[in-house]
Amino acid sequence: MIVVRAPFRVSFLGGGSDLPYFYREHGGAVLSTAINRHMFLTGREMYNKDQSLLKYSRTEAVSHFSQIQHPIFREVFRMYELKGLDIGVSSDIPAGSGLGSSSSFTVALLALVDKMKRLGLSRMEIAELACHIEIDKLGETIGKQDQFASAFGGMNLLTFGRSGSVTVEPCLLGTGELEWLSKTLYLVEADGIGRAAGEMLGQVQDHVRQNKSAFQATQDLADLAIQGFRQIRIGGIQVLPELLNEAWRLKKLATPEILMSSATDVMEAGMSDGATAAKLLGAGGGGFVLFVVEPLEQSRFIRAMREYTVLKIGPDLSGVSVIYEEEEK
User: Fold this and answer.
1) Can you give the three-state secondary structure of 238-306, one letter per residue?
2) CATH of the domain at 157
3) What pTM, to 2 d.p., does this model score?
4) Least enclosed by CB within 10 Å: which of 62, 67, 101, 157?
5) Are residue 257 and residue 276 in the same domain, yes or no?
């Protein structure tokens, strides 16, 4: 039995510039951190080598990859000609949360297969393969930040070249800065878990292509990610609230208004009751809002958010990891 864990992420700055339609023309950049909420996969060899058992929100028993209904499972099984595996899935947070759960699943599955089949994949190779599967093979209208954030862990500046290349530059935070993040970051569920990321990002993509101010805002978000990375290196992580509030101003310009409505009331309530910064995660349409709340204001903030689901989070530094491996008998 092998257990693999892959973190979700929160995007601080630059979201939207990691989509192919944008970075292929202009490049892109995102500043994000992996968080201590995870996707878990367990895997073992089946006694019957001709069948596989896949357990997620449903259960599939198959004898060939072509029978698999789950598209990511099917593509990975096809890619590596897998059979005779028993794989189970568990998650800290449901899909559609704006935290990159689908890509965390893909990264975790690839890491599990890598371990079980001794493929020797690096974190970079796992992230690139996850992007290839989700974007190129399955045609999902999603970006590249989630896969790299989950594979590498930590807080990183991700830079997207026009060729599709991705550069990962760690934001090396001190112990005190990591503690500050762990003490101040909250997620609040805006209006139920949202729709699939591809559906919403497709709307954002059309909006940016048709609206000059939305396009410029997306470019400004990418520039802000690079500037914010530099500012944090110079001034420390405490400059983050100011950067997040600027990112929220730009995101409102880059995102269709219909996708923002569910979060606006939550954000305004949090900002008026103790939070120093707020940002909608994902493309909108539900999911979570990220808040920065200093310790002295947290009791007030939590009271104000009592009608919503509130999660306290911190950074994950490990990235995708094998957390349990049973010794061979």
Assistant:
1) HHHHHHHHHHHHHHHHHCCHHHCHHHHHHHHHHHHCCEEEEEECCCCCCCEEEEEECHHHHHHHHHHCC
2) 3.30.230.10
3) 0.91
4) 67
5) yes
